[in-house]
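[job 0412] stage=fold_complex status=start
inputs:
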Amino acid sequence: MLSRELSRSERLFLVAMQKLSTKMEGFSVLFADELVRQYGITGFLRWVVRMKGLWKELTTHFGERDAHLLTAFATMWNGCGYCAEGHLLAYNLVHFNETGELSPLDEKEIQPLMRKRGDEIVRLLRERLTGPRWAKTLALILRQRDLLLDPTLGGGPDDEMLRRAQAMYEWTNDCSVVADGKVAPAMGRIAKIPELRARYEAARRQATSMPIAG
Amino acid sequence: MVLSGHLDGAGAEALSREVRLQLDRRSARGGVILFDLHGVTDSDLAARPVLVELQKFIATRARRTAWMDDRPFMKGMALWIVHFSGDQTAKVVETLEQAKTWFALDVGRVADAVRRTERR
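[job 0412] stage=fold_complex status=done
writing structure:
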């Protein structure tokens, strides 16, 4: 389904933007054309500027690794499996690159996770992210969830950043939902290291997984 | 409006007929519609274009719509519908409180999200 056809200038613009994104960021997304369909070239550029600014704030506040994790869950709660998988993969690659270890959350589990109810997802995250090592990560994800469900909450040191990021991805996911079901790239600069992806995937294949029941 | 069971193309058509009938009985444009998806076990792709057309029709008759569920995959399906309907007065929510908040606003879905990205 298409909301409208793109003009020739819009198509040329998108080709240039996709090339630039792949060169600068290491990946490009499948929903850029939908952003242009919805908002035009000017609106698309407005989204890019706001996204880049907010991403910079998010990574400054939480660090690149947790910024990817929080984005993965923000987009998952919004219903976008494509972005959730892409950012969880980026998180896992950064984590693997920094520690040499696999995180307890495989990006391939996002789709079955998304079929569960909200409280079941939270229970599963509590089971996976156990112990002092994951306490801060779990607390961040749960705070993000609490803020999403209760707009009266606030006052925490991370709250405004978490709320603004959630809103940014509401804006983004309104278009990215058209890529649902497609294979997501690692949505971060870590995608520029292809040999890391190969090592990470080999490690995942050897690891014992705990599949999420359907 | 509480929905349940497997939402296929025929089910979406039946829902569309029922909603259109109810909205046609109203004399004036206005009011809000809440679709509660918690009881829907799954949905087929065939249901989507029917629901997009339904949402377009609702946009001409109701003031605001909310599609409610707490399962991300169902929220994604509902987001797809409101996106392709082009109706900025429709939104996906997770709780009744969120639906009430949405019904009380008069700003569009994306405009509301853009506003909330700004530093306070």
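[job 0412] summary: Residues 146 and 153 of chain A are 8 Å apart (CA to CA).
[job 0412] exit 0
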